[in-house]
Amino acid sequence: SAAGLNADLGAVTLMRARLELEAEDWTAALRLANSAYELFDQRGLLERQAQAELIRAHATLALGRADEASELALSALSTSHKLQALPLSHAAHHLLARVAEERAQPERAQDEYEAAIRDLERVQTSLTTELRTEFLGDKLRVFQDAIDHCLREGQIERGFGYLERAKSRALVDYLASRPDVRVRASTAREQALIDELTH
Q: Angle at CA 165, nearest 5°, toward 51 and 75?
């Protein structure tokens, strides 16, 4: 059907927008994300529209249009709350943190980074073991940006806390995805502790 073709075309256009974003061709990314948004709008695909808005927000922020980026990120955040879509929520908070940094609002940026990381951790916890590592793979940037922000603001202890959270999350997922990784006990007491930790 025409509606189905529009949705498929929108998905391909959105993927092309992401690729242009990664290539740092902000104008092309924005143009493609706008096209994808319109195609999804015709089908009423809210979650896909929000994904397009986030790409638009990234591109407009890179082009120096912080106000527009903020509006787009807030719109995507509103949709994420409506749909209870935490992956969208953490991405929107991450963008709002970057906007706040651009506007020299360090406290607002810190709040947004914390919200982004909190939502990231919540959604990762809810995923099956097989999906967790793949999900985290491209999401560590929010930890990196939060740590950089803390270092710029002289909040060394908080930055170290974010580093530990990122490392802990990655370690848990690594161990969970590799059941062959086992600690060998040399005593019955050690084995009891290992059994407790495994449980």
A: 20
